[in-house]
Amino acid sequence: MSNDFDPKIVAFCCKYCAYTAADLAGSMRLDYPPTVRIVQLLCSGRADVLHLLKAFENGADAVFVAG
Amino acid sequence: MIVADRKPIEDIKEMLTPYKKILMVGCGTCVSVCMAGGEKEVGVLASELRMIDKMENKNWEITETTIQRQCEREYIEPLEEKFKEADIVLSMACGVGVQYMVEVFPEKIVLPALNTTFYGTTVSEGEWEERCAGCGECVLHLTLGVCPVARCSKGLYNGPCGGTDMGKCEVSKELDCAWYLIHNRMKDLGKIEMMGTFIKPRSWKQSLNGGPRKRVREDLKK
Amino acid sequence: MKGGSNLEKILTKGEFAVTGELGPPKGNDVEAVKKKAGMLKGYVDAVNITDNQTAVVRMSSISASAICLQEGLEPVMQMVCRDRNRIAMQSDIFGATALGISNMLCLSGDHQNFGNQANGKNVFDIDSIQLINTVKRLRDEKKLLDSDEEIEGEVKMFIGAAANPFAEPYEYRPYRLKKKVEAGVDFIQTQCIYDMKMFKEWMKVVRDLGLHEKCYILAGVTPLKSGGMTKYMANNVPGIIIPDEIIKRMTSAPKGEGAKEGIKLCCEQIQELREIEGVHGIHLMAIEWEHRAGEIVEQAGLLPRPKVD
Predict the structure, then answer these.
(1) Residue C309 included in any domain
(2) Is residue C306 situated within a structural domain?
(3) What does the pLDDT look like over B40-84, one tens digit per residue?
(4) CB-based contacts of B21: which residues, under 8 Å, 6+ apart?
(5) Is C53 contained in some domain?
(6) Which residues of C are less than 8 Å from B181 in CB distance?
(7) What is the DSSP secondary-structure string of chain B?
(8) Contact C124 B156 (CB under 8 A)
(9) pLDDT at position B2, please?
(10) Which residue positions in chain C have pLDDT lower than 50?
(11) The pLDDT of residue A1 is above 60
(12) Chain A positions in Cβ-Cβ contact with residue B48 (cut-off 8 Å)
């Protein structure tokens, strides 16, 4: 794989922890790659295999669930 | 319930290759409970197929639907419009469902997405085991509730054979010896003398050997 | 006489019987059968002809039995329930008796998973105890299973079966033999015996049930060839128990002396088995060691074999 590969990543984040952490990172002026797209969930327990597959179908190279 | 397993994706892909408009039909009863062909599994398979479609330019158009039961006409009939629009139907029910949809809509080809495996139960989360062979002549009263037809690898009526090993079957250490279980139950329930009863050769007429079986209740017939 | 075989006559006379075992070739090599038969002739009273043992395809038991008969060695035709339904079984029994076979052994059969046709479908239309009863009905009532129609001719068969004292549930094993006796078995051959204490306990229950007076019991012995084979059998063969002292004795035999030690041990076991009340003979399973069977029988003091008419 060449070095210019810029993976598109979809992050499914819990509103109360992971998403808040991302928010805090923003207010601390920390940056993360723009190719990471965050989807907020009310709870990471809501993440379903169909959501993950949908992300892949729409072109994601990777997905992760954080909560 | 009837337990089934999804066929490998490669096999499903090959079956669908000649077609364009695919109607996927899940079944909301047995195969939903054993997580092989319910609404969720239809979604997962549809997603896999759409990815294959994108990567391999199959030109598939996939429609998903799940009905309560594919083994009853009144649940199948409302699919008429969807059937009309489809080139092919991919059923995620057991073999009964596939065949009954064909009987209701004979002009369509219905493909099986599952391998129907057995009549069984959920023994623990994600684990199902066979319990009944549907052999047509129940002997559970003679074996105190453990079926030798479905659960002994040789289907012995007068077991156990000499291959019992630490309570397991000679075929695999993963399998309990059915006759070992039967023996222990008889012993525990104070009915060990039942192990001495010779079970005579049965008739297999009630089983599959006489062609497809049929049950009629004259009092219910119209 | 039930089958009128040499084996039956020897047992009826109260002589200590010796049966051997012959595995047919994995093909149609007649010479292979004749060669093995030649090695056993004169040393055993009858020889078991295995029926596709371990589910590996071999020359049929019925054909190899017929070849043995021509060679002057009496066969005990084994028949397993795995491969035939009741039509084929009864037909083969007619055929076997027509060819002069007069002993048979009714077995369930090793599961096809063990063999070279693991994708095959098994039959098990009837089980081994039901088979015993079916043969008895053919012989004594001259009737087929589930049929009142009289058969043509007579089925003279000395009916045998297997018994395994070393398979669980141990306490049930003598009662399973009782079931076989009630189904009509005339003689039984046991699984290979290494644990003498356990076998004696089993025999005690067998005697208490009076089974030793209702059928002839041939105690199974298999000579161990080496320490390696001993360990393999102890760990991998279901239904065989080998006590630690035997494993120790076999593994500590000097290099190259394993076979000698195994034969010595086997002869000692035979002596011990002869002393047990209710044991009417031995069944010597010298697996792929037919050429040493004579030596074992001789060393065990079982020669010459009795002549009966």
Answers:
(1) no
(2) no
(3) 999 999 999 999 999 999 999 999 999 999 999 999 999 999 999
(4) B60, B61, B63, B85, B86, B87, B88
(5) yes
(6) none
(7) -EEEEEPPHHHHHHHHTT-SEEEEEEESSHHHHTTSSSHHHHHHHHHHHHHHHHHHT---EEEEEEES-TTSHHHHGGGHHHHHH-SEEEE-S-HHHHHHHHHHSTTS-EEE-EEEEEEEEEEETTEEEEEE---SS--TTTTTT--HHHHSTT--SS---TT-BTTEETTEEEEEPHHHHHHHHHHHTT-GGGGGPPPPPPP-TTTTBTBS-----GGG--
(8) yes
(9) 98
(10) none
(11) no
(12) 53
Between C109, C130, C167, which is nearest B164 by CB? C167
Tally the domains of chain C.
1
Within 10 Å of residue B198's Cβ, how many Cβ atoms?
Answer: 14
Domain-embedded: residue C262? yes
For B11-22, what is the mean pLDDT? Answer: 98
Give contacts of C129 with chain B, Cβ < 8 Å.
158, 198
What is the separation, in whole angstroms, between the first and last Cα of chain B? 28
Chains that touch C (3 or more CB pairs under 8 A): B
Interface of A with B (CB under 8 A): 49-50, 53-54, 56-57
Give the range of the structural domain holding residue C21, as residue numbers without chain letter: 6-299
Residue C206 C-alpha, separation from nearest chain B C-alpha, in angstroms: 14
* In CATH, B2-118 is 3.40.50.2300: yes
Looking at chain C, which residue has its C-alpha nearest residue B179? C169
Task: Say if the Cβ atoms of B157 and C178 lie within 8 Å.
Answer: no
The answer to ipTM > 0.85 is yes
Q: Taking the domains of chain B in order of start, what are their residue ranges? A: 2-118, 133-196
B43, A57: Cβ pair inside 8 Å?
no
Residue C114 in tokens: 């063990």
Peptide bond into C169 cis (omega under 30): yes
Q: Which two tokens stand for residue C236?
A: 């991998």
Angle at which helix C258-274 crosses helix C290-299, to 10 degrees, equals 50
CATH number of C294's domain:
3.20.20.220
pLDDT of residue C204: 98
